[in-house]
User: Fold this.
Amino acid sequence: MIYFDNAATTYPKPECVYAAVDNCQRHFGVNAGRGTYKTARQASEVIQKTRVALANLVNIRNENKVIFSPSATVAMNIVLNGLDYSPHTTVYITPFEHNAVARPLKRLSDIYGFSIEMLPFNGRTQELDKEAMRNKFIVKHPDIVILNHLSNVTGNKLPVDEIFNTSKEYGAINILDASQSLGLVPIDLSSQKVDFLIFAGHKNLYGSFGTGGFVYNSNVKLKPYLTGGTGSDSLNLNMPEQLPDFYEPASHDIISISALSASLSWITEQSIKKIYIHKKELTDYTVQRLSELSSVTLYLPENRENHIAIISLTHIDYRPEELADILDNDFDIAVRSGYHCAPYVHKLIGTENTGGTLRISIGYFNTKNDIDSLINALGELD
Assistant:
C-alpha cells in the first residue's frame, strides 16, 4: 500500500515507536501515579519525561503545564467547556476549523447564547483580509479566538502571530489548534500569544492513537470539565488544585505515552527543520506533477510558502469517493475523500456540492516514487 492519509494519522511510525509500545506492554504497562512500587515509578517517570520533551518542543519551562488527554478532540472539549461564557461573549474562528472545534462551540452557543464570528479569509487565495479582521474586532471585540494552525483540508498554514497579536490587544483568550502542525512547524510559546495549545500525539508527532492534550500557557483558570480519580489527594471530593492533576482524571494511557516519548526522541534526532524540508519538497513536487493533469482542480493557497503536506483536489469525471475507491481497489493507494470533518472550509473553496475533495496528505516516510505512482494512476484516468 502507498499511504497518503497522514493528515488523519501518520503511518507508518518510526521503528522506535513500535519497539516502545512492545517494551511498555511487556515490562511496565501498569497504572502510573497510583503505586509506589518500582514498576509504577518507572511508568510515572516515562510520563514525566514525555511532558518535559513536549515542554521543550514548544519552549515552556514548566512541564506540568503539559496536560495529557485521550485525543486532541477531548483536549479541545476540556478547554472550551472550562471557559466562562455569557450571551455577550464573542468567539472568533476561521473557516478552516475542524469539527473538534465547530461542534463543541455549537453546543456551547446553544446553551449560553453567545455569537460565533468567522474571521475573513479570501476563498480564492485562502489569505486573511487583515483590514477586515481589524474592523470586525472594532465592531465586536474578541473574547475568545480559536485558530487552526494548519488546515487539514488545504494545507494552508495560517498567520498565527498576526491574528493572535491583534486579538490580544482586546484581551482575548487565544486557542491554537496545533493538531496538524506540532512536530512539523516550529512553535515557541515563550513569545507567541497563545493561551492554550491543543496537540494530537498520532499525527505529526508520530506517536500512536490514544494520546493528545493541551499546553496550558495562560493565567486563565479553566473550570473542571472531567473529574475523577487522580491517585492524589484522594479524600478530597474536589479535583486536586495542582497541575497537571486538576485536568487529568483517570488512568494514563501509559502505552500511548511511551510511544509518544519515543517519537519525540526521534523528532529531536531528525529535527523539525529536516522533517519540514523533506515534506515541503514532496509537497511542491506533488503539486507540480498534479498540475500536469487536465482532469483535476487543485485547491491551493495562493502563497505557496504557507502550503505544506496536504493537497485537496476534485476530478472532472469522478466524485471524490469514487476516485478514492478506484485508487484503493485498482492501485492500492490510500487517500481520503469527503469533507474531512471540516464543515466551513468547503464553503470557502467551493466544494460543498462536489462531495468535498480528494485529499492527499504526505508523511515523512513518503517518497517521490510514491508520488509518481499516484500521478501515473491518475494519469490513466485523465
User: Anything to note?
Assistant: The first strand starts at residue 2 and ends at 3. The chain has a mean pLDDT of 97.
